[in-house]
Every structure is written in structure tokens, then in C-alpha cells.
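Help needed: design a sequence for this.
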């Protein structure tokens, strides 16, 4: 496994800083440890911070980019791109530009595989769905040269169990922000995964990377601080994927981990 990935490039495309750690931080760290050159692209700076409406806060965008740099270091990411596509409008704005960014990068660097959101966008986040659509279209446009494309997904019930465990350990969910989301929505619309990656040995790095995203996870009010390493390995130690139905001559990557 290590020999086949050494020096190979893996491209992970997400919408906002923090998606990479939440969706598949364990797998990215495991790929990096296996010798892959992991490249993370965030379509936006996350300058709206999950708030709906027209508010654009560029100071928040800059802060989130720095948080992403810190998380990327923890995960062993080699290169990071933070595009300036508009947070909150990724499904509709700048579609040809984003498509061109992706196609040019893939033509130039020929990744061994690409990872992005599934069509449920983890929890129907429309920016995530937009990134799924752009990345799928860009990979498909490469025809015979398309690399294998993998969609991240979450097993139903994983987030509720994680949140329940944190509550039992004394955590109180905040009224606003990421952790005010209903945990049941994660993975609710996802296709069943066909690939499971054991990331138990990478969970501590995944949690550390998630905690780099202070502006989203909250400084004190996040459940991660209430879940110990044993719980984390049990609750977050597997990541789930399925493979896009796009013909490719590229060798499988995640299936070989
Ligand atoms: Zn996101």
C-alpha cells in the first residue's frame, strides 16, 4: 500500500475550512502517512461562517483560512488552496471559474484520486452539494484520464451517538453555530457507504485538526473536549466513502488502504 501511494497526489475538494477535518480528517492523515501528497482545496474562505443571509465577514474568512492552515499541518496536508469563491453561493456563483480551477489543477497534476462530498453534502448544506456537483463534473470532463472519485459520507447514527456521549460527559449544546445543528441530519440522505476506512489510530489527529477550527467549533462549548480518546476511537474511528460511477483507468486508492 505504502509503495503505491508514495509520491502520489491525492486531491480533496471541500467548501469551507473545517469540512476536510470533519468529513475525512482521519483518512487524509492516513493517506499522508502512507506517503501520498495530500492537497486540500477549500472553495471558499468560509467568510459567512455558516450564517444565512448576505453578511460577508472577511475578517472571519481570514481567520478561518489560518485555522485551516493549522489543521492542514496537523493532518499532514502537503498543499492547501483556499479559493475566493463566495461562501453561501457555491452552488450558483462562479460555476465556470470553479470548474476551470479544478480541471486545470487535475490536468496539470494528475491526481491518483479525488475526494469530495457525496450528493447529500453531508447534511444537505447547499455549498457542499455545489462542490459535489462541480467536482463530479470536472472529473467526468477528463474522460479517459479521469482519476477515481470518492465521495465522503457519514454513517447514520454516528453523530447522534457522538453528541449523546458528549452530553453524558457534561457537555451542553450551544444555541448557535455548528453544534446547534441536529445531529440526526448527518448522513440522513447519504447513499450507503461501500468503502470503510479504519482511522482509529488517526482519530487523535482528526480531533486535534477539528479543534484548530476555533471560530466554528467554539472555544469552550465544543463536545470534543468532553470525549476522551477511548470514546473518540469508538465513535469516530471509521470513515465512510463510496465511489462515483465514472469510468476510469486509474488504479483504486482508498480500497487499498
Ligand atoms: Zn462546510
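Sure. Designed sequence:
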Amino acid at each position: 500500500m505504502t509503495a503505491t501511494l508514495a509520491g502520489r497526489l491525492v486531491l480533496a475538494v471541500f467548501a469551507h475550512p473545517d469540512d476536510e477535518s470533519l468529513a475525512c480528517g482521519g483518512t487524509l492523515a492516513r493517506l499522508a502517512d502512507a506517503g501520498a501528497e495530500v492537497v486540500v482545496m477549500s472553495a471558499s474562505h468560509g467568510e459567512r461562517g455558516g450564517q444565512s443571509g448576505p453578511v460577508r465577514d472577511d475578517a472571519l474568512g481570514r481567520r478561518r483560512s489560518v485555522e485551516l492552515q493549522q489543521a492542514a499541518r496537523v493532518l499532514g496536508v502537503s498543499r492547501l488552496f483556499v479559493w475566493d469563491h463566495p461562501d453561501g453561493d457555491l452552488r450558483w456563483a462562479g460555476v465556470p471559474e470553479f470548474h476551470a480551477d479544478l480541471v486545470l489543477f487535475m490536468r496539470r497534476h494528475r491526481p491518483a484520486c479525488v475526494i469530495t462530498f457525496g450528493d447529500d453534502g453531508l447534511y444537505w448544506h447547499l455549498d457542499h452539494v455545489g462542490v459535489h456537483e462541480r467536482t463530479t463534473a470536472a472529473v467526468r470532463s477528463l474522460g479517459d484520464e479521469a482519476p477515481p472519485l470518492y465521495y465522503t459520507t457519514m454513517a447514520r447514527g454516528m453523530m447522534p451517538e457522538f453528541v449523546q456521549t458528549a452530553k453524558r460527559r457534561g457537555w451542553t449544546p450551544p444555541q448557535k453555530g455548528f453544534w446547534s445543528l441536529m445531529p440526526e441530519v448527518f448522513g440522513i440522505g447519504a447513499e450507503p457507504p461501500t468503502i470503510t476506512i479504519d482511522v482509529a489510530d488517526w482519530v487523535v489527529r482528526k480531533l486535534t485538526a477539528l479543534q484548530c477550527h476555533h471560530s466554528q467549533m467554539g472555544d469552550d462549548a465544543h463536545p470534543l473536549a468532553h470525549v476522551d480518546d477511548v470514546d473518540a476511537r469508538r465513535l469516530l474511528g471509521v470513515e465512510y466513502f463510496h465511489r462515483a460511477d465514472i469510468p476510469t483507468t486509474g488504479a483504486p486508492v482508498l480500497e487499498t488502504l
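Residues 15-16, 19, 125, 127-128 surround zinc ion (CB under 6 Å).
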